[in-house]
Structures are given as C-alpha cells and as structure tokens.
Design goal:
By secondary structure, the protein is an alpha/beta fold. The chain folds into two domains: 198 residues, inorganic pyrophosphatase (n-terminal core) (Alpha-Beta Complex); 117 residues, Diaminopimelate Epimerase, Chain A, domain 1 (Roll), CATH 3.10.310. It is 39% helix and 17% strand. It contains twelve helices and eleven strands. Strands 6-7-8-9-11-10 form a six-stranded mixed β-sheet, sandwiched between helices. A five-stranded parallel β-sheet has the order 2-1-3-4-5, covered by helices on one side. Helix 1 packs across helix 4 and helix 5 runs parallel beside helix 7. The structure holds manganese (II) ion. Manganese (II) ion binds next to loops. The site of manganese (II) ion has 7 residues, from loops.
Length: 331
Amino acid sequence: MKKSTQEKKPAPVRLAKSVRLAAQQIMAADRILISSHVHPDGDTMGSLLALGLGLLSIDKSVVMVSPDGIPPRYRFLPGSELVLDRWEDSVDLAVAVDCGTLRQLGRFGKYFEETPKTIQIDHHDFADVFGRLLVADPAAAAVGEIIYDLLKELDIQITPMIATCLLTSVIVDTGAFRFANVRSRTFRICADLLDCGVDLKYLLEEAYWKKSETTVRLEAKSVQHMKFERNGRVVWSYVRQAEFKRVNGIMSDVDGVADDLRSIDGVKIAALMREGADGMCRVSLRSEAGINVAKIAQVFGGGGHFNSAGCHMKNLKTNRDKLVRILCSVV
Ligand SMILES: [Mn+2]
C-alpha cells in the first residue's frame, strides 16, 4: 500500500522512542517471528527480509513468515528462500511489518494475540493498533524507511543484500519515486542504501520494470472491463477468477492496475476488483489528493492510506453497487 498527500505532523520524538524500545525488545528476545501481510507487496517483503537478514547477521534466532508465501516477482529478493508460509512453534516476540490490521496477518494473526511481546511496525494512516508496541510513522513512504532506522538503532551493518531489500520496499511503495509519499528523507535513506552497494539498475529492472506476459494479458482484461462514471471522474474495473485461471495468473499479477487506472486523465478515483478462488473479492482504491479512500475502504472493513487503500468483499453483486455509489458520491 502506498501514497498519501495529506498533511502530516511527524512525531519524531515518539517515533525515535518507539524505535529504541523495539530495539531493546528485539535484543532481549530469544526467538523472534517476523510476519508480512497477506497478498504481500514489495514493501512488506522487503521489510520482512531486511529485518530478518539483519537479525540473523547478529545471530538472533529468527523465523520469517509470510501467510501467502512469496509472489514469483519478489523471489529475486535476497533471503526469500528462508521465508516460510507455515510455522506452529511458539516464539517470545512477534513482529508485524506493514500490517494495518490484525486480519492482514492471516494465519499468523494468532501470534499477535498469544505472544507476550508483539511489535507492529507500520506506516498506514488508517490502521488498527494490535501490537503491544506500535512503531508507526505515517509520514514514511514505506515501512522499509522505518526498518532502516531500526537497523541503525540495533547497530546492524547494512549489507548489499539488506540494502537491496530496503530499496525494493521504497521503490515499490513509491511507484519508483512517482507517488506523493516521497519526502526528502526518502532520498537521503535511498542515497545511503546505494552507498551500501545496491545494484540499482538490476533492482529497478526486477522490482519495477519487469512484467510477465500473464500480467500484460490480465492488464488487458482490466482495460476491457473499465467502466467510467461521473463524466470520467470515477473509473472502476475488475478481473474475474476465470480470467486469472485462463492465463494461469494470480492476484498479484495485476498489482499495478489500480495505479494505472488512476493515471487516466480526469480520473479522481479508481477501483479495481479482483475475484478470488473462494468467491471473495479484493478491492484496491486509489484517489487524487484530497479524496480519502481509506475511509471508503473502512466502510467495507478495510483500510490503508489516504490515497491508496483496499478492502475485501463477499457478495460482490450487492457490494459492488454500494461501492460504486459511494465512489460517485465523493467526486
Ligand atoms: Mn507499505
């Protein structure tokens, strides 16, 4: 999830303090579980791996988990082969990266209810607090920026592998530095990461440019299905489960489509609905400055950022009409 153009008041003291507390809890823990969110994106994957590899480098016992595994497009990330999608043993500290709600942790949510110490590292504007320690910075373009601070606090050396994970997190959540969430500190952190030895050309190719043929075929479907409302101010589209199946595709293949829809001249709100195998539908919302789509996502039990949010819906027929009506009412 990404983007926000809302004015934000950073709280540097509180943030620095929570980063310090997180570092203390990490150093005191024997076995640490770090989890990404369901439907993982580059921010949650890069943050998970950067923190996991960092802690392994100082000989901490770490379990890296991702409830939905690793999408093929992020398997180039260093350490991705260490990430598990199942884990049952207990741990004494659980850390969630880039998760705005407990539900986003899927099957690993139970660790955040059962483990005595839990840390939620997040940058969503509209999030639930479920971690006993919250390390949140809504001004951070990506959670990778907060992980960078945490690694510095832990005095962990940022190796080229760790830097690659962190830079991926920032590149993906800023749409390769195109979104309004980019701040001067984003560039400062990225400049430092480049100095740590990242191969930027390779990384941009892997994390940003490269698309599978399946992705392009599914993007074509989403273009075919576009519906414009309110004189082109609202656009919505969908990809059916049968269409995913026909090209052997998965939901993450069309991660970029919601942003593409929003980039159409005149569009103020864009919605993309992806139908899952279980009949559940995943909705991604994007908006231009001034329109809070996280609030709309919350109506359906979701959340996210001011200009980039998402939710899940059952009963697509009824809910789709309701969603489109709400989208049309705010522009
Ligand atoms: Mn994020």
